[in-house]
Design goal:
The chain is built from 13 helices and eight strands. The N terminus is likely disordered.
Length: 374
């Protein structure tokens, strides 16, 4: 069991966050691609919190080789970086962040600690590179007197990952540490700022089709041949199980998306779309196995995307308007964007419903699982 050293930040012992939130590499990769070495700046009113290390760590010399805990099974050896050198590396990394994060990171304190705090069982998450500890931007008030937000970097976990990756990729450890620090800071600042206005996409038909064409394969990979214990539970009355979602998507392919596109192109706003029965799949799909539904959905989606391609919709046509029976005037672009977003929404629903089947089985880790939170 790992025990993190006691550390101080400006004379105060930093308290562990109530709900740690991980800095996922996948979520940060897209953000990191926007980095440019020609953009140099430092966080406004941001400091690196230099937490003193224990003598056992700070006295290590390059000649003293140790195995980091997470990588002991691979026997990866690496000389730990002294805290002052790691802090300098963090400062250099912050100088390379893009200017678009300046406002998002205002008043954020970057803290360096050895390891995450142990959980109630005394165990430390050795894969967590860093977390955000604070109040998301969208929840802040002008009257907010809370302490500054923090991004906490876990030095030994980052070093451990870097040592392992360096051995596999034949690259300098310091280079990988630099990348990990950058990814961790960017991921946490971007995720917790919840600044969706900067990341909203303009509608492009090709982008929507890219999602629509992948949904059948995604559902097939996730659901086919799973036990019914995963695919039939739902969240209560008038909610969908994974089986229901696939049936619902089939009903939409048959009665909603392309039929509405045809009505809009033929009649404009003069004829409203037919109302959509979100439970219309119950009778038609009753008793059918999930594998058959997946096949039917894939076939219908291929046919509808082929029909959409044959329409050869020019960009100017995307502004044409139709009439939704409840929402009123809508554009063709909005209808097609909703089609793709509807897919993503139900994929998220499937994942959520399935995850809830282990809400009790995960035990105390439930506190770390956003998908299980109310």
């Amino acid at each position: 069991m790992l025990v993190p050293p006691q550390q101080e930040c400006n004379g105060k012992t930093p308290a562990g966050p109530e709900t740690p939130k991980g800095a996922g590499r996948a979520a940060a990769t897209a953000v990191a691609s926007e980095l440019t070495s020609s953009t140099a700046w430092r966080f406004e009113k941001t400091e690196i919190c230099r937490a003193p290390t224990t003598s056992a760590i700070s006295d290590v010399t390059p000649a003293q080789r140790v195995s980091l805990p997470l990588w002991e099974t691979r026997d990866v050896e690496y000389s730990p970086v002294k805290r002052e050198n790691f802090t300098k590396l963090v400062e250099e990394t912050l100088d390379t962040l893009p200017a678009k994060f300046r406002e998002l990171a205002r008043n954020v304190v970057v803290v360096v600690e050895d390891y995450p705090p142990p959980d109630e069982h005394g165990l430390v998450d050795e894969e967590l590179m860093g977390i955000f500890d604070g109040v998301p931007t969208t929840e802040k008030s002008v009257w907010d007197t809370a302490p500054p937000d923090r991004v906490i970097l876990y030095q030994r976990n980052i070093e451990g990952y870097a040592a392992d990756a360096a051995a596999e990729e034949n690259r300098p450890v310091e280079e990988i540490i630099h990348e990990e620090v950058r990814l961790t800071v960017l991921c946490n600042v971007a995720e917790e700022s919840q600044d969706r206005s900067q990341s909203a996409m303009e509608f492009q038909l090709g982008d929507a089709v890219a999602i629509l064409s992948r949904t059948p394969a995604a559902l097939n990979a996730l659901l086919r041949d799973l036990p019914e214990s995963w695919t039939t539970p739902n969240e209560g009355p008038e909610t969908f199980s994974p089986w229901d979602v696939v049936g619902h998507l089939i009903h939409g392919e048959e009665t909603d998306w392309i039929p509405r596109v045809k009505i809009l192109l033929a009649h404009g706003e003069s004829r409203a779309f037919a109302p959509f029965d979100r439970f219309g799949h119950y009778q038609k799909c009753a008793g059918k196995p999930l594998g058959e539904l997946l096949d039917t959905f894939a076939r219908l989606r291929r046919q509808n995307l082929a029909t959409l391609a044959q329409m050869n919709l020019a960009p100017q046509k995307l502004a044409l308007r139709g009439t939704h029976p409840a929402l009123g005037p809508v554009t063709l672009a909005q209808l097609l964007a909703t089609w793709a977003t509807h897919d993503l929404s139900h994929i998220g629903q499937i994942v959520r419903v399935m995850a809830k089947q282990y809400a009790e089985a995960v035990g105390p880790w439930k506190a770390y699982m956003r998908v299980l939170q109310p």
